[in-house]
Design goal:
Blueprint lengths: L2 H19 L2 E2 L6 E2 L10 H9 L33 E7 L2 H11 L4 H11 L12 E4 L4 H7 L3 H13 L2 E2 L3 E3 L11 H8 L3 E3 L9 E8 L3 H12 L5 E8 L8
Parallel strand pairs: 3-9, 4-5, 4-8, 8-9
Antiparallel strand pairs: 1-2, 6-7
Helix pairs in contact: 3-4, 4-6
The structure holds zinc ion (ZN) (2 copies).
């Protein structure tokens, strides 16, 4: 068993054990989760709220009223050419979810990120036929040292653990970049151009699920999809925790 598999097994066992001994905590509102024998990451209230939210199956925009489907009518994406089969998210980057993401991104946020990774799996509307590879959006090593954590990697490992699909570090970040969130929308595409590289072999009929914490314009994800398709990938999905204000780049 690899070191990663051992540590995730220990973490999972720890969560089950703490669920038996201590009240679990909802990863959004921090309330106690009532059923101690079946530790969950959401309390019943947040679970209900999650089930109620209607999202576009193509771009994951939260739709304003329950019958605002189908997705070809989605105001956020109907005019866009997106290089993904599907984007799923837990919700919009505000309120409790924003606080949970900020907690997960902190250098003590491993447990929060792990819980959010478990939540991410419920978002895949149409499960890919073949077993996909779960691929974290890469972070440059200098940023990881500064931040003290790699949130996307923890999310992806948690996601892979829950689904039983394979975690693959299929792409790397080759250079340090300006933070996307600090750049004007128009500069973001240029900032990430040629910043990433595929490591290893892409298997064409193996679906890929790219995992990250927040998506704003999607510029990073679009650039990753571009190099992965160039390397032979045929099916790319995106799973993000929080979707910021829709302002996608067109490709
Ligand atoms: Zn809750
Ligand atoms: Zn949409």
């Amino acid at each position: 068993m690899s070191q990663g598999a051992i540590s995730s097994t220990v973490r999972s066992f720890g969560r089950s054990l703490s669920g038996l001994l201590l009240p679990g905590c909802c990863c959004l509102c921090r309330d106690d989760v009532v059923d101690y024998r079946n530790p969950k990451v959401l309390c019943p209230t947040c679970e209900q709220e999650q089930a109620k939210a209607k999202k576009c199956v193509r771009c994951s925009a939260v739709l304003s009223h329950e019958n605002a489907l189908p997705s070809e009518d989605c105001p956020a994406c109907h005019h866009l050419k997106l290089p993904f089969e599907e984007i799923t998210s837990v919700g919009n980057y505000d309120g409790l979810l924003r606080e949970a993401v900020l907690s997960a991104k902190s250098n003590r946020g491993t447990a929060s990120a792990w819980d959010l990774g478990q939540l991410l799996t419920s978002g895949l509307e149409s499960h890919p036929a073949a077993q996909p590879w779960i691929v974290p959006v890469p972070m440059h090593w200098t940023r990881r040292i500064r931040r003290g954590t790699d949130t996307a990697a923890i999310l992806a490992k948690s996601f892979a653990r829950k689904t039983g699909w394979s975690y693959r570090k299929l792409v790397t970040c080759q250079r340090s970049m300006a933070k996307q969130s600090e750049l004007p929308i128009t500069a973001r595409k240029k900032n990430v151009r040629n910043a990433f590289a595929v490591q290893g072999v892409v298997v064409p009929d193996r679906p890929i699920v790219l995992v990250d914490d927040i998506m704003t314009t999607g510029a990073t994800l679009v650039e990753l999809a571009r190099i992965l398709r160039k390397a032979g990938a045929s099916e790319i999905r995106v799973a993000i925790v929080a979707r910021s204000t829709p302002q996608y780049l067109n490709v």
